[in-house]
Amino acid sequence: MISDKKRKFLLVLLISTSVLAISLTFYFYQLFFSPNTMVDSDRVYMLKIPSNAVFKQVSNQLYDDRVINDAISFSFVSKVLGYQDAVKPGLYKVEPKMTNLELVKMLRSGAQVPVKVTFNNIRTKEELAEKITANLEVTPDQFLHLIQDSVYIRKFDFEEETIMSMFVPNTYEFWWNTSPEALFDRMYKEYQSFWTEERKQKAQALGLSQKEVSTLASIVQAESQKSDERPKIAGVYLNRMKIGMALQADPTLVFATGDFTLKRILNIHKEIDSPYNTYKYTGLPPGPINLPDVNSLNAVLNAEDHDYLYFCAK
């Protein structure tokens, strides 16, 4: 028979154990299910996790940027869920009042947010590199290294003079941590998608390759910012090419000089010895003088059929 003293001890022990169990349960519940992000309701925090980043970097960044309130609980939940050894690079959207469980599950699954990349009005490879990588992990130097690598770009059937044709101006979605090589592969697929069978047939009917269409479109685009004028201008240049006449396109001389502030072409400029001097050399230059947009490309493919050999700038 249990004595009163022992009964009291057991009762106290039971109560103490129950309180401890409840406290631990509540504590662990708090670790997993209580909000731990301090992001304001009127803003969103975009977390950039670089390639090859380790967990400590992620945790420190979140805490140092005052995104999470408790780094210890975040680390604990990350350990339990196996995230500490499975960090995935990318761009992640951290929202207000996220729990450790929500935050870790998002990061562990690699549920990153796509980045919109828009480029147009580009004249040089350097400009393209700056524009296309502006919101990506890849750097302009990494991009330039590939676009200037004649061996690498040969896999896409382009040369150093024509590779710009592969980049069709538009708005695209990429993952923030897209590698330089994956970026080029994607743009090549977009280039192939643009060149439908219908467009290929139109180019063939004009006696032009796809690269030549891009080159002529770049000249047409430089001649006029008005989209409705471009098919007529394209027709003029095509007529000159048909009779073996020099294109005599001022924008190609601007490109040849490398001085894009040049507003007026003088006779001295027409003597420049450059394959881009379309006063001195007949036919198209080696490659595009800018990144022609879809409107300009379509203007060449749907050029006006007329007999004009000249046009006046307005």
TrEMBL record:
The protein's Enzyme Commission number? 4.2.2.29
Which keywords annotate this record?
Answer: Cell membrane, Cell wall biogenesis/degradation, Lyase, Membrane, Transmembrane, Transmembrane helix
Tell me where on the tree of life, at the top rank, the source sits.
Answer: Bacteria
Against Pfam families, the record matches this protein to:
YceG
Task: Provide the site residues for: Important for catalytic activity.
Answer: 223
Transmembrane helix: is it a keyword of this entry? yes
Q: Name one GO biological process term.
A: peptidoglycan biosynthetic process
Cellular component aspect of the GO annotation: plasma membrane
Reaction catalyzed: a peptidoglycan chain = a peptidoglycan chain with N-acetyl-1,6-anhydromuramyl-[peptide] at the reducing end + a peptidoglycan chain with N-acetylglucosamine at the non-reducing end
Q: Which family does it belong to?
A: Belongs to the transglycosylase MltG family.
Q: What does this protein do?
A: Functions as a peptidoglycan terminase that cleaves nascent peptidoglycan strands endolytically to terminate their elongation.
Protein name per Swiss-Prot or TrEMBL: Endolytic murein transglycosylase
Species of origin:
Algoriphagus boritolerans DSM 17298 = JCM 18970
